[in-house]
Amino acid sequence: MFYFKTFILLSLISIQVNAQKSVLSGKAADYKTKEITFYTIPDPVLRQKLELASTKIAIDGTFSVALPISQTIEIYTDLEKYCGTMVVEPGENYTITLPPFSLRTSNEAHSSYFKPAPFWLGLPAGDNNDLNFAVRSFVVDFNSETVKNTVSIYQKQSKEVVNEIIGRLEAKYLANKNEYFKTLKNYYFAELEYAVNQRTPEFVIKKYFATEPVQLHHPIYQRAFETIFSDFLRKQSQDIQNREIVHLTNSGNYLKLVSLFESRGYKKEFAELVVLKGLNDGYYSNTFAKEGVMKAIEMAQTATISAILQPIAHQVKRKLSLLAVGGKAPELRLSNLKKSQVTLDQYRGKFIYLSFFNSKSSDCRAELDSIVSIEKRLRQVLTVVSVALDDDFDAAVKLWNSKGYKWELLNGSKQKQLIINYNASITPAFYLIDPDGALKLSQAPSPSHGLEPLFLKMFRDYNFKRQRN
Hints:
The chain is of the alpha/beta class. The chain is built from 18 helices and 15 strands. The protein folds into three domains: 2-126, Immunoglobulin-like (Sandwich), CATH 2.60.40; 133-322, no CATH class; 333-468, Glutaredoxin. It has helices spanning 2-16, 106-109, 131-148, 150-155, 159-172, 179-195, 201-208, 219-229, 232-237, 244-250, 254-262, 268-282, 290-303, 310-322, 362-378, 393-403, 416-421, 451-468, and strands at 20-27, 35-40, 50-56, 62-69, 73-79, 82-88, 93-96, 117-120, 333-335, 341-343, 351-357, 382-388, 408-411, 429-433, 439-442. The chain has a five-stranded mixed sheet. It has a three-stranded mixed sheet with strand order 4-1-7, with no helix packed on it. The protein has a three-stranded mixed sheet with strand order 5-6-8.
């Protein structure tokens, strides 16, 4: 936990150095008494939410919140069916309007496929010079151009049509010299050029990325970078001319990986960003040895030259090691039905089948029912613990009482850090923890998808190994 807080602090520092207060205020009567949180996405490698500030809407619907930021960034707020967004400049004050409150359905709330609809936060008092209006105008024009030319761009891959679109948009927005806006425009164009140059991506990479400043916090830079460099190390290694990438990664040689991309004309900072992204994405592939990836990331923690990339190297290491098989299971301290505090250490010496669920989810309820027979048969050798992530723990208690489940129920309501630590934003989620407190299966199969035979084999192997030692 100390490491996580340290690295989040590093990300916050990178945003808040020389920070100025930007104040958002407004009135939203249908959100009264609700808490809303504003966040940003600080980098294109992990793309994790970084909370900036929260505020509770007053009973009369008014709200005001100050965001400490040092550079122009895009911020977001999750509002059930909507994701509100806007661009915020340091030291500026904004009066905003929120979308009408619309509660997600139970299926939407627990579906991995549901994505809140993007919503540009209203700016009723903004003047025409506000950066948000320029951004929104450009996005509308860009989308209009691409829709009208979909066949030419995405089927015929016409470079001529793409150049014509870029020319028209450049001419229309030539007068806007705002740096944030120019970067936004540039990387929209990068995405467009990539669409017609996917067979020769190096053309786009050299034009827009290789020697240009890294723009970690810019959302369109992030999106274009993700489009081009997702799983980049693995994809590059498939080319017979790049087979050394596999050797360098498996041997954990971060510095030589960076040098490889520098030899292609990438500036060092950008080469480091590409390698960090590639290591993060490649960890779960079958191409690279996990031990080699982790060794390379450990080297990156001290060898990375760029100050803005060092926190990312630390966070990638933490993320990949946190739920790695063989690593210590993340700590938890939660209340049970008797309101007693429970920790994993209390079960030391036993195998634990740890599940995360939401009682509103039909999938979760079905899997809880599937646990019943397994728990009854294996309770001498397997301890089942379930963590309810319901906003209202009483709903889970009611389910427990009506079903008569016999195993431990813990209250995980509003435990944001726990959800992050166990990657449990989508439920149900399951983990098997061995008697030494280490993760044995991460994630584990659900009870209805082969848990029992796999556990019994692991149980026998674990005991056989102990007897031999």
